[in-house]
Design goal:
The complex is a heterodimer of chains A (639) and B (102).
Chain A: H1 5-12, H2 15-27, H3 33-60, E1 65-77, E2 81-91, H4 93-116, H5 123-142, H6 146-164, H7 171-202, H8 207-217, H9 223-239, H10 248-251, H11 257-266, H12 271-278, H13 280-284, H14 287-309, H15 314-334, H16 338-365, H17 378-381, H18 383-397, H19 403-415, H20 423-448, H21 464-479, H22 483-492, H23 509-527, H24 529-532, H25 537-544, H26 550-556, H27 561-579, H28 584-606, H29 611-638
Antiparallel strand pairs in A: 1-2
Chain B: H1 6-26, H2 30-55, H3 59-89
Classes of the chains: A mainly alpha (639), B mainly alpha (102).
Chain lengths: 639, 102
Amino acid sequence: MFLSTTEITLALLPVYPLISFLLLISLGERLSWRAASIVSVGAMALSAISSFVVINQLSIVSPILTVYLWNWFELNLAGNASTQINISFYLDGLAAVMISVVTGVGLLIHVFAAAYMKSDENFTRFMAYMNLFIVAMLLLVLADNLVLLYLGWEGVGLCSFLLIGFWYKEKANVLAARKAFIMTRVGDTALAIGLFILFKELGQLNIHNLTETANTIWQVGDEAPYWIALLLLGGAVGKSAQLPLQTWLPDAMAGPTPVSALIHAATMVTAGVYLIARMHGVFLLAPEVMNYVAWLGAITLLLAGVAALAQNDIKRVLAYSTMSQIGYMMLSLGAGAFSAGVFHLMTHAFFKALLFLTAGSIILALHHQKNLFKMGGLLKRLPFETAMFTIGLLCLIALPGSSGFYSKEAIIAQLWSSNTAGPIFWYCAILGAFLTSVYSCRLFFLAFMGEKRFQDEPRSSSSKLLNTSLVALAVLSLAGGVFASTLEVALLDVFPRYHSSLLNEPQWLHSAAIATPFVGIIFSWFYFAKYRHSTSCDAEHSVFQDKPNSVVLFCRRGLGFDQLYDVLFIKPYCYVAKLNRNDIFDQLLMLCAWYVSICHDVFKCSQNGKLRWYAAAIGLAVVLLLLSMGLQHLSLEAS
Amino acid sequence: MSAIPLSHVLILASILFTIGFAGVIVRKNTLFILMSLEVMLNAVGVAFIGAGSVWQQADGQVMFILVLTLAAAEVAVGLALLIQMQKRFKSLDIDLLSKLKG
């Protein structure tokens, strides 16, 4: 079997970061900063270049590229049917978008991370985990069957856990890592069960064949696709931090900032969106579940927007904003506008990575100050960072011309007349856009305007690596809209053509959608005027003291979901664990050990070290022996 | 000379042996234990001599001389140990020597 050059390039995509990971993890601290960053960033650069080469080939030769590497194992279903699970990659328009985001944004974030984490004592470990994450993410998006996808899915979860808890010496970080791991595990279990049912029903796990078979076997609205889609949605909800399982994402900000940018904003959290987009064949057969997806997205996007309004930590604002933007993607998937959702995934990766990395730069410049109420006046002191952050915020608010505008408008435009969504979702999305612009403005006013509220003078980073990656991401964020037509062509074959219902769209829809961000900005300009103006010292104290009332505190803690889960799950679990403190089942097993220990005690008594006792025992034994021999003799004589 | 029946000899030997064994078990003083051991050895000797004279064989007397030699050697070693014990523990209590217990 010979592979063409393009196929080899595709197959080698995840190999470069894997080699880099192995090198870094085995050589460890022996590598200097320069060597470690050249290895890890170089591997990412190779991956990025080859992914762009492959994608170019894709558009010319054929819309789909597959490469079969080797057979992983064989699955048997009840003896008769069997299916091959292969390590093979499947590249179509959707996967192409994902690998370009993963390797492109990943490369820029690696460059940033190399400079950002330079002084950390575990620098090589950090870069190794980042590389491993890229490997897992590439496996996830390139997988041709669901088992390989699940491998990547668990791999990114592992890397997320490792990187949130990277500074493991602080207890809060470890707890956050554990929380993220357990919360996503709930979703992963649902996904695994979904895969089992899918295999039981269809007898195969190859994504492409599976979609075709599903369309021939099942009708729209059947029960099997309903449950399967619901379980897959469970997995997606866990990974993408949507409504019932969203509480881990804000805590995940305990990790280093490049991790928040790469894993918890740009790539890993969009894996759920990717899963639904990839399995759209099954989801289209279950319109109710599509409706649930839309509802989940809409509610999450509003709740996260409200929670973002009350945060005082710059990274947590961005975390809730990520949650809310993924809500948009889910909403768009639920409405059947798959390509719009994937487009928003891409632009969101650009501008959210930019926002997180700039936030990292600012936090570094302010000597690890994350509290918004202790910033202020950065406009004059950190002009470069301010410019970068403003560009990111403009895209987040979706001002016309920025990349966020194109993708968000594409989503909102299709909501009103969608079969599985409707006008109510349109209103949710508009309200969400309004909230987005309000919390963005609040963040901007608090951090960059007004008077400074910190003692130490900020030191702007002079590192070229940091600033280069920021500028590159800013350019991508601003110009991301030009990919719209390319993306539409690429995704044309992947997703079914969009059917709109016959519902009439009012004329004012588009103008209202475009006007909303401006309304939000004007509203916050007046509503948050106190943050902009620096009046006298006394007034400043009252505004910036950060004494939240109960409502603000409730929102800041993520609208009470943590407390709810604490009462519903953690408390009963701890209670049961406390009841069974002695572990009844363990005691049953411990009976064996008990028996041995009793025998030991008995025999220990016989070893008392007293010579006379030993002599007596020997004498007794001889007497007994003689007696038994005598008895034997007698019985022999009697017979 | 009227021959003493073998059973009498064996009864005497076993009484002596039992007395000696009881001494080994009951006495705490190591010196007395050694002496009781001598009693036991001699009980065996009596049994050998008695059996040798009943069957008119020299083997019984040979065995007795062997036992006697063995007893002498054993006492030599035993008394040496006894002196060492007196030096170290200032006592002859056999129960003090129990360091090898489990």
